[in-house]
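[job 4417] fold queue: 2 targets
>>> target A
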Amino acid sequence: MKILEAGLDGIKIFEPDVFGDSRGFFMETWQEQRYTAAGAIGHFVQDNVAFSKRGVLRGLHYQFPNPQAKLVYALYGEVFDVAVDIRKGSPTFGKWASVILSAENRRQVYIPPGFAHGYYVLSKRALVAYKCDDYYSSRAEHSIFWNDGDIGVQWPSQNPVVSEKDAKAPRLAQLDKSHLPE
C-alpha cells in the first residue's frame, strides 16, 4: 500500500495494492493492523454508502460531540473530496485539503476526528463508501456552508446541487466555538 500526505496533519491518502488479471481485480479496502500502522487511527463501527449524480455537492458535514474519523473511497465514479480542519487551537484551523477519489484510481482518504467533510461528484454517477469510528447521531450532526469564502475551497463548480440544509448552513466564523472539536 502506498501512503501519501494530503497537506494537513492527520489526513492520509492510501493507494491500496490491487491484484488484477483478465477476470478483474482484488484489493483490501481495510485491514486494521496495516492501516493503523500507516496512521489511520480508530476502530470503525459503521459503514455508509451514498449514491449521487453529477454536480451534487454533499457537505461540509461534521459531528460534535462524538466527532468521527472516516475512511472514504469511491466504489463507482469520481468525486472531488474535501476535508476542512475545524479543530479549535489547530495551527491549520480553517484550512482544507482535497483529493480525487475514483473507482479507477482506487484511492482512499483517511480523515481524522475534528474535520468537516464534503465532496462534489465529477462523474455522471458516483457511489461513495466510508467507514466511521463513531455512530451517526442526528443530534450531533452539523454543517458548514460549502462555499464559505473564509475557507476558500476551490470546488470544481460554483453551481452545485446541494440539499436545503447545506444551502442554509452557517459559515465557520458564525459557529459557536464551544461546538467545535479540540
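>>> target B
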Amino acid sequence: MSLTLASKTSSRSRRSPKHQRVLERLRKQILDGEYPAGCRLPTETELPRILSVGKQTVVRALHELAREGLIVRRRGDGSYVADRTQPPLLPGRHLKLGILWPRSILPERLVTYFQGSITRGALESWGLNASSGEFPRVGEHDTTSATWTSVSRGVTVTCLAESLYSRQRHPELAAVRERNFDGLLSLGIIEETFIDELLGLGIPSVLVDFPNERFAMRADQVYVDPMAGYREAVRHLVARGCRRIHFVGSMLVPPAPAADMNPDALHQWREGKKRADPDSFLRMSAWRSALDECGIKLTDAWIHFDLYGLEAQLAAKLLQLPDSQRPDAVVCHGISQAEMLMKIFAEHGVPLLGAGAVEGGYGGPALPIRVDGAELGRTAAELLLWKLHRPSRAALRVGVPMGLVVQGAQSTPSQPAKVIEPA
C-alpha cells in the first residue's frame, strides 16, 4: 500500500511544473536551515546551473518565495533569506524609506535633537538599531545623510538633510527625488512650498510635528497633542491657588529661500515675516479649555507670542503691570520660556509658577509637560507602513498625547533637559 502511494506521489512530483519543484526544493532548504536567516541565496545566474533548470523557472520560484515572505529580493543585489522572527516589512519587497530633517544630520544630533528622538522611534519600529547608521563625510555645501539597512526586515532607511552651510531647513528636492524612495517621513519641516513640491512627487508621505490643514487631504500627519497635558497643567496651577495664568506661545521665522544666503541678507529678508507656531495654537486651545473648565475668565491680554530668547522683554512688560493684573503663573510653549520668566520674576522678588513642554528627564523649577518624541516616530513609521499596504486609504491625522509630570518639578534645576523648541 505504501509503495503504491509513494509511486503515485513521485509520479505527481514529476508531472508538477518545473518552477513548483524548484520552489519546493528551495523552500525545504530554507526551512531546514540549509540557507539560514540573512543568508544570500545563489544568484539567478548560479541557481539555474545548480538546479539544472532555465532562468525563468528560477525567477518564478524566487518570486513565489518572496510572496510567501521566506526571502527578500533586493534589486541589483540578490535574494536573502528572511528572518521569520522579524519578517520583512512588506513581503516580497526591499523598501527604500526616507526620513527628512529640517537641520543637517550629524551622529550626535540623534541624541540631542528632537528630530533625533523621532528618528530613533521610527527606526525602532522598523526593526533597525539607530547606533548602526552610516554617516558619510561630505563637504559643507553637500546634502548631509545617514543610512541604516536590514536585509532580514527588507528595508533601507536614508535620512536626508540640508548641508552644513544651508539655512533652508530642508534637504534639496533633487536629492530626495534621485533616491527613488518608496515612502517618506518629513520631520518638523515648516517650509510649505517645499512640502507642496515634495507631495507632488507622489511618494506616500507622513508629515511629522507640523500640523497643517493645507495638507490634511494629501498626506498623513502625526503631531504632538497637547490637550491632556496642558489641561492637566492648568488644573494643577489652579489647585495651587493661581488665578491669573497667562499663555506664552512661540513664533516661527521662515527658512532661507536659498541655501547660499548669508546671515545679514537672511536677517533682512525675515523682517516682518514671523508667524505663530501651529503647535502653539493647539497648546493655547488646551489652555483656554482648561481655564474655562476651572471657571476662570481670561482676557486677550493674557496671551503672548514671540520668538524664543525674547523672554526678558516679556518679563519686563509683565512686571510693570499692577499686582492685580500681573500673572501668578505662565503656561508656555516650551519649558525654557517658563524657566526664564520664573527666574526674572524671582530676581525682582515676585513669585511666579510656570509650565511648558519638554522631552526627557527634567528636574527644574517649572512643571514639565512631557513630549515623547520616540512615540511620535513609532506612530509615524507604522502609519507609513499601513499606507504602503493600503495605498488607497484616506489621509489621517494622529495626535500623540502629552502628559504632565508633577513629580519632576523641583525648586532648583538638577539636570539638563532636551527642550522642545521650534524648528
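[job 4417] complete. Note on B: The first strand starts at residue 71 and ends at 74.
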